[in-house]
Amino acid sequence: MSRCAAHTWATEGAPELIELAAQGFLPSFLQQMISGAAAGAVFASLALALVLIYRAMDIANFAQGEMAMFGTFIAYALITGDFGLIGTKLGFLQVHLPFWAAFALAVIVSFALGVLIERVLIRPFEGAPLLTLVIVTLGLFSIVNGTAGLNWGYVFKTFYSPFPSDAFEVGGIFIGKQDVGIIVVTLVVLAIVFVFFRYTRLGLAMRAAALYPEASRLLGVRTSWMLALGWGLAAAVGAVSGMMVAPIVFLDPNMMQSVLLFAFAAAVLGGIESPLGAVVGGIAIGILLALVGTYVPGGQNLRVPFGLLVMVGVLLVRPAGLFGHIEARRV
Amino acid sequence: MKIASRAMALAGALSLSLLACGSQNSSTSTPQTDVGITSTEISLGGIFPVSGSASAYLSVAKGADAYFGYVNDHGGINGRKIKYTVVDDVYLPANTPAKARELVDADKVFAVYGELGTPTNLSVRDYYNQNSVPQMFVFTGSSHWGADYNQFPWTIGWQPDYVTESKIYAKYILQNEPNDKIGILYQNDDYGQDYEKGIKAGLGSKAGSMIVSEATYNAGDPTDMSSQVNKLKASGADTFFVVTTPAYAANAVVNAVKSGWKPKLYMNNVSAATSTWRGIATQLGAGASALDGMITTTYLKDPLDSKYANDAGVKLFKDVMTKYGGTLGGTPCDATGADSFCVSGMASAFTMVDVLKQAGNTMTRKNVMDIAAKKLNETNNPLLLQGIIVKTTATDHFPIQQEQLQKWQTDHWVPFGSVIDARAS
Amino acid sequence: MSRLLAPRNRFNLIAGFVGLVAFFVIPNVTDTFQTFEWAQVAAYAAAIIGLNVLTGYSGQISLGNGAFMAVGSYTTALMTTRLGVPYPVTIPIGALLAFVIGILVGIPALRLRGIYLALATFALALTVTPVLNNFDKFTGGHVGISLKPIHPAFGLPLSNEQWLYFFDWSLVLIVFVPAWLLIRSRTGRAWMAIRDSETAAVANGISLAYYKTLAFGVSAACAGVAGSLLVINIQYAQPDAFSLNLSLQLLIGVVIGGLAYVWGPILGASLAVWLPFFAERALGAKPDIGFGLFLIAVVFFAPNGLAGLIQRVTLRLHRPEGGVVAIPGVMEATPAEADQITT
């Protein structure tokens, strides 16, 4: 383009073009980015739970989503008083807690359940080969899913969202308040986890027990209980994820299954040992999926394969992910 | 039964045993009755998602079974009681064929009734038709059953099919809102395409100009429809056709409201349960007014609607569910009618019983199937809207082709206009 | 000759004989439903034999063998309906195609091990259904492909289900024998060496790349045959059948049957088909909770699966005074026997 033409374009044609783009393309694009980031935040929090368990014992917990779903059901029961089959049998459980109280209680109960599961179902298999542990988590998946289904049935329920469902309007772009809320909550959870591991003695003990079990034991760390705590923490974080996503996808026993596979992709993308990586990976995948869904023809139907393509691609090219350490194999 | 000899030579043993294999054909039937009919019992079978993610649909079987319990208590069918055996395929078409053989060969049912799901029923349609087992009143709105009757005369549907339903919406729009710009969200498979075909056929020559955008998703995808909704909104559509399944429909509408898009809403009947939209309205809070005016069709009475408080049919429903609601096991049907699947189950069971009664003393599979597929003319179904008849003829094998439009108002559906007949189109 | 009558081999001979008798007796004394279910067991057994090769003998975890089954299934479905090819002919073609795809999957899988391989194959399993659904012009999509009804060949006086039964189990034999021969050969020893210690295997000059990808290929070919058999049985191919659930069924089948045991796959397949049936009859619906508990109980009490359990029990009954002498197994070689070795 000659300088003359370029000058003309810049002063005359371009502003209209940019304005047109801003009116048409940009709002839609930004809107997609933000919806995507919010979906990604949900993946991120479940990915965080996966990372916590992986750091503790080197396995991918295929039942993490179900545990998150169960925690969400507990919150649902506390908010609406619908305790399902058990509720009708034990009629006294008629509570109606405000959201954040139910949220806190559900997190605590999930933590306890996580610890319980580790003690009862995982501990007998300490030291077992990987395949055995995979089967155990698959068995756990069935148990948790079946229990929720038996108790509350499979008709999907609406889950109260603590965030208003309308949007901030910024120059033609609608930013959902719920989306923003989800992102904020996820970042807060990440911050708490980070602070816990970095700056508390218990967090230090858990990290030590995962990395150097024998040495930690010699130093008085009860490594077995550290494992249980890891499961409890992961269950608690997972429950947060479930409670953030339930208003969007509606609550039923199978709601976390599609989230789980993107959470795996996020954990792998970010580095399966890195909590920060899990969150970054989650948000990245959420945005990527939204963009693919909108701008790639036919992309809406291929979100699942695309997300998995990302995961496999990362595994092949850089298994350690964005933030992970490349591990030397000990023989 | 002969047992194969324990010969040493493999080849010899193989051929011997092949020749010795006993016949596995069912016994020939006497003129007046058939397999599955005794002097006291009529044995029906059904394959449903008893467990797994689609188990919400089991309520159809529960509603039907409750009605059978009621009929059995009141003289049965010419003195015979109905036994309904329900087995589980977890909604997977890979499981259904084995279950079909279980019902036909191990349980020796007279007919299968009310089976659920399109791919699941398709996977066993060949088997039933080859073995002359009536596959009656399958619970899906696919247009396959009526359209393919000549090839598969042992299979018949019941509920209004999706193509018919879409044509009804199209008819209404052409008459009342001919300048609508329509965006459609549908499932990328046979089910969703039935609706899409129906809308386009119903709009006729105006389809190209009125439909400005389409978005799809695959069944089983994560239920987040935000990118689809954004795409439809960006196209400038002012009318949103949501023809999906409940979870996706709910998500799509919530996304539309959240994003500030306020289109006219058309919701398919499958996703229109009152309880679903009450829940969404609660969740939307102040934004729930966006739901008002949403249009869907119906063909069943809604027991939750106070105007049916004294309706004989609805009263019967409540009675039946209270007394016989739990006969199938698990959580019984809610007698208030909150679960619309229970209602449709009982409505179709009424037709089934009707057909069996009409067969009188000729309780053969052929006779029962003929009545259902060619001679049905039921006007007194207690749970169908007044004016809707269940009718089949030698050339029309779609039993129900009338529906009524209704609008959403705050917390319930309000019917308007008259029952629309799509039989001609 | 004495080796042939050693306890372990005696056990195998007896088991083999019992199996043979059962094979001929079953379709004669059961109704079409049960015969049909046993034909399904055959299809699953073929797939699990393949998975046994991959996971049991070469130590590579795969959560995605259902994808290879899909290759065989759709090859059969498309070739019979679109090209009019007789269904038996489609089976070796499907197996070959699956073999090639297995190799293609095995090559990048070389870079992955342990949980990463599990995750990658998990991803593979999850892509099958959406891809099959999406490219519906080619695959028939969600509504599926119906095959023409299959009747006994050569005009044999059998019911449809009996014919399927014999056809399927013949194919299982055709799959089993080469797999078994491979396992007994140098290839099998190389696989087991890789499974037990990759570093030691490399140090001994075994090519990881060659044997590991070969294992994937063989495993996929077996799964391809199984997929064809499945479609031939039900005469309907539909994407939902190839969800993650199928791959998990195979994995659970191979573990519960007994990894690296010759009879493991057949036991595992039998359980995979019959256990849900009995559970449903007993409890009214397919039980998720019971299933999960059962899984965990089995891997806890019988870490070597049913085959391992049976073998442990029978060998204990047959043990001569001095314990079992360490002979390399004629019919199987598993690390589980290390605890029975005395000198």
Distance between the termini of chain B: 57 Å
Widest β-sheet, arrangement of strands of chain B: 2-1-3-4-5
Q: What is the level 1 CATH name of the largest domain in chain B?
A: Alpha Beta
Which whole number gives the mean pLDDT of chain A?
83
Helix content of chain A: over 70%
CATH superfamily of the largest domain in chain B: Response regulator
Low-confidence stretches of chain A: none
How much β-strand is present in the residues of chain A? under 5%
How do the strands line up in the largest sheet of chain A? 1-2
Main beta-sheet strand count, sense and barrel state of chain A: 2 strands, antiparallel
Shape of chain A: globular
Q: Approximately how much beta-strand content do the residues of chain B carry?
A: 15-25%
Verbal overview:
The complex is a heterotrimer of chains A (331), B (425) and C (343). Helix content of chain A is 73%, strand content 2%. Chain A has helices at 3-57, 64-80, 84-89, 99-122, 130-152, 177-199, 201-211, 213-218, 223-249, 257-270, 275-295, 303-317; strands at residues 167-170, 173-176. Chain A has a two-stranded antiparallel sheet. The model of chain A has no long low-confidence stretch (mean pLDDT 83). Chain B folds into 2 domains: 2-160 and 308-394, Response regulator (Rossmann fold, 3-Layer(aba) Sandwich); 162-298 and 405-424, Response regulator (Rossmann fold), CATH 3.40.50. Chain B has 14 helices and 15 strands. Chain B has helices at residues 10-20, 58-73, 96-106, 118-130, 144-147, 162-176, 190-203, 207-210, 226-234, 246-258, 274-284, 312-324, 340-359, 365-374, and strands at 41-48, 81-88, 111-113, 135-138, 155-157, 182-187, 211-217, 239-243, 264-267, 295-298, 377-378, 390-391, 402-409, 412-415, 420-421. In chain B, strand 1 (41-48), helix 2 (58-73) and strand 2 (81-88) form a beta-alpha-beta unit. Mean pLDDT of chain B is 86; it is low at 1-16, 18-23 and 25-30. Chain C has one domain (2-21, 33-342): ABC transporter involved in vitamin B12 uptake, BtuC (Orthogonal Bundle), CATH 1.10.3470. In chain C, the strands form 2 sheets. In chain C, strands 1-2 form a two-stranded antiparallel ribbon. In chain C, helix 3 packs across helix 10 (208-234). The radius of gyration of chain C is 20 Å and the shape is globular. Chains in contact: A-B, A-C, B-C. Chains B and C meet through helix 1, helix 3 and helix 4 of B and helix 1, helix 2, helix 5, helix 7 and helix 10 of C.
